[in-house]
Amino acid sequence: MTKSALRALPVMLLLGAALCRADDVPNNTLRIGEYFVFYHASADDLSGPYVPPGVNVEVKDVQTPYFAYLRRLSTHFTAELAFGIPPLTKTYGRGPATLGSVPYNGQEISTARWFAPTALLEYQFLDDSSPWRPYVGVGLNYTYFFDRNSTPAGNAASGGPTQLSLPASWGPAATAGMTYKLPYNWSVMASYSISRVDTRLTANTDGIIRTTHISFGPQALVVAAGYSF
């Protein structure tokens, strides 16, 4: 090596290190925000002994904190695992005003909580230097129901204390959203997601079994902040 090359070597190394740092993009992101869940539920009429025609249910919308971990796979692809704190979901009677002499329509008849992690593979538009990055994604949702309870109004409509069963659900999920980069590796985002959550409700009232199939059809608006590292 000539003396000139030796003198230039430190400068070249520093320049190379600076370029590497400039191209270095964080591969991990943590997000926290809020889920606004809108149900588009449909259910078969409840079937079983002593059930008149037209007895059905409806589910009220909920909101809950949102958490997610994202792993950057390449310039355009990211994997996301998202979940929320299990919200209390309330189910109301729909159909006849009364069952016998017991009020039914509009009454809160049951409650349940659900844990629903969703894994997504997302395609990011534009490139890593862009502050705005729209994206779309597809994946798989798993929903586990727990703390299933029949309310006093539900017990009265069923004719006594009632145990509820809701098997877990697997279904496809899809999302579309936008992120905006802030200084110091922070970002904000908003997205809208849909998923399929189907289960079969079984109500057991002292050995009397009544059932219905429920499709919850949840759609969720998410707003959140993220930190990349």
Spatial gap, N to C terminus: 40 Å
What is the string of SSEs from the N terminus onward? HEEEEEEEEEEEHEEEEEE
Strand content: over 45%
Proportion of helical residues: 10-25%
CATH C-level class? Mainly Beta
Overall average residue pLDDT: 91
Total helical segments: 2
What is the count of β-strands? 17
Structural class: mainly beta
How would you describe this structure to a colleague?
It contains two helices and 17 strands. The chain is mainly β and 229 residues long. It has one domain: Porin, CATH 2.40.160.20. The protein has an eight-stranded antiparallel beta barrel. Strands 2-16-15-12 form a four-stranded antiparallel sheet, with no helix packed on it. A two-stranded antiparallel ribbon has the order 7-8. A hairpin with a 2-residue loop joins strand 7 (98-99) and strand 8 (102-103). It is elongated. The relative contact order is 0.20. Residues 12-23 have low confidence and may be disordered.
Salient structural properties:
eight-stranded antiparallel beta barrel; 59% strand; 229 residues; elongated; mainly beta; 2 helices; Porin
How would you summarize the topology of this molecule?
Elements: H1 3-23, E1 28-39, E2 42-43, E3 56-59, E4 62-72, E5 77-84, E6 88-94, E7 98-99, E8 102-103, E9 108-115, E10 118-124, E11 132-150, H2 152-158, E12 163-165, E13 169-181, E14 186-195, E15 198-205, E16 208-215, E17 218-228
Antiparallel strand pairs: 1-4, 1-17, 2-16, 3-6, 4-5, 5-10, 6-9, 7-8, 9-11, 10-11, 11-13, 12-15, 13-14, 14-17, 15-16
